Amino acid sequence: MTLLSIEGVSRKFGNVTALSDVSIDIQQGEFFALLGPSGCGKTTLLRILAGFETPDQGGVRLDGTDLLKLAPHKRPVNLMFQSYALFPHMTVAKNVAYGLERENLPRAEIKARVGEVLEKVGLEPMANRRPAQLSGGQQQRVALARAIVKRPRLLLLDEPLSALDKKVRAEMQLELKRLQHEVGITFVVVTHDQEEAMSLADRIAVMDQGRVEQVDAPVTLYDRPRTYFVADFIGANNLFTGAIRGGVFSAEGLGPLPSKATTADGSAALAIRPERVRLTEPTPGMVQGVVVDVSFYGGVSHIAVEVTGLGRKVLAATQGSARITPGTVVGVTWRPEDAVLIPN
Ligand SMILES: Nc1ncnc2c1ncn2[C@@H]1O[C@H](COP(=O)(O)OP(=O)(O)OP(=O)(O)O)[C@@H](O)[C@H]1O
């Protein structure tokens, strides 16, 4: 069931186009991510949903009602900020109760709801502490508790984990996912960190320069990128530009490459993941190159091959430590079905 419909939203600031005809449907109960490089417009879109920004064109519906007509505080939407914005002089419990107290709910109900939420985020034993007496990860949980205690239909999270160090961040990712499942609230998270988006979200909208490039599940974005930008942005990839003629893809400077062309003739790109690249004995007609670097990253090895005629390296990845040394001349190939063709 669609909860949120973003329909043809555009926004300009002077001559900068922050959003250009953005349309996205977000499902009830979904963990959704807006992912893209700095300046792609994701924060602007989040601010439009929260009500701090208005689009020049387009509409936004939540549960079928026009969200843009509602003032920010009237929207069944909560925004969790990057900086947690906790009140330093209030206890954890007070911080969480604050939003409910402002709604003048009965004391008993506030107490029950705060207790329930603190238990969910594992902070009950710390209910009487002040934010300064908590770790970064615990402060994060308070912020989250404060956002979900009001039971919004939609929770917006702006780079929620960027202030945490790597280890705490990994823990909080799992925690966020678990909590989202448990409370069943639809989450929309903004991030420029693709690993974070991939590990958290059910679906991701990849954005670039104010446009939505692709909306899909993480695995689909990885395996079947539909645009050059997505193929390049999500994970490591080897990309070749060229053209499809008569069902065969030929790369500029290299000639035909293994692929199964199902798309029409015309200019296109070919993407092949490093883990799909096979390095073999070179045979005539095969793409060839010289191994220039072998790096072991605990579990996987990355092998860089300077490809003849390309003036550029191709990256291969293998499990374990690679039994190949720099200077070796190799053939570079892959199974045709592993190559992704992206028409221009
Ligand atoms: N209030 C504003 N006035 C002028 N330009 C703005 C304003 N807000 C955003 N922009 C511009 O609009 C574009 C999109 O900005 P936005 O903050 O939405 O991007 P972002 O993807 O969230 O980037 P970041 O990850 O750096 O926050 C940028 O070029 C930005 O400079």
From TrEMBL:
<keyword id="KW-0472">Membrane</keyword>
<dbReference type="InterPro" id="IPR050093">
    <property type="entry name" value="ABC_SmlMolc_Importer"/>
</dbReference>
<keyword id="KW-0067">ATP-binding</keyword>
<keyword id="KW-0547">Nucleotide-binding</keyword>
<comment type="similarity">
    <text>Belongs to the ABC transporter superfamily. Spermidine/putrescine importer (TC 3.A.1.11.1) family.</text>
</comment>
<keyword id="KW-1278">Translocase</keyword>
<keyword id="KW-1003">Cell membrane</keyword>
<dbReference type="InterPro" id="IPR013611">
    <property type="entry name" value="Transp-assoc_OB_typ2"/>
</dbReference>
<comment type="subunit">
    <text>The complex is composed of two ATP-binding proteins (PotA), two transmembrane proteins (PotB and PotC) and a solute-binding protein (PotD).</text>
</comment>
<dbReference type="InterPro" id="IPR005893">
    <property type="entry name" value="PotA-like"/>
</dbReference>
<dbReference type="GO" id="GO:0015417">
    <property type="term" value="F:ABC-type polyamine transporter activity"/>
</dbReference>
<keyword id="KW-0813">Transport</keyword>
<dbReference type="Pfam" id="PF08402">
    <property type="entry name" value="TOBE_2"/>
</dbReference>
<dbReference type="InterPro" id="IPR003439">
    <property type="entry name" value="ABC_transporter-like_ATP-bd"/>
</dbReference>
<protein>
    <recommendedName>
        <fullName>Spermidine/putrescine import ATP-binding protein PotA</fullName>
        <ecNumber>7.6.2.11</ecNumber>
    </recommendedName>
</protein>
<dbReference type="GO" id="GO:0016887">
    <property type="term" value="F:ATP hydrolysis activity"/>
</dbReference>
<dbReference type="InterPro" id="IPR017871">
    <property type="entry name" value="ABC_transporter-like_CS"/>
</dbReference>
<comment type="function">
    <text>Part of the ABC transporter complex PotABCD involved in spermidine/putrescine import. Responsible for energy coupling to the transport system.</text>
</comment>
<dbReference type="GO" id="GO:0043190">
    <property type="term" value="C:ATP-binding cassette (ABC) transporter complex"/>
</dbReference>
<dbReference type="Pfam" id="PF00005">
    <property type="entry name" value="ABC_tran"/>
</dbReference>
<dbReference type="InterPro" id="IPR008995">
    <property type="entry name" value="Mo/tungstate-bd_C_term_dom"/>
</dbReference>
<dbReference type="GO" id="GO:0005524">
    <property type="term" value="F:ATP binding"/>
</dbReference>
<dbReference type="InterPro" id="IPR027417">
    <property type="entry name" value="P-loop_NTPase"/>
</dbReference>
<dbReference type="InterPro" id="IPR003593">
    <property type="entry name" value="AAA+_ATPase"/>
</dbReference>
<feature type="domain" description="ABC transporter">
    <location>
        <begin position="4"/>
        <end position="234"/>
    </location>
</feature>
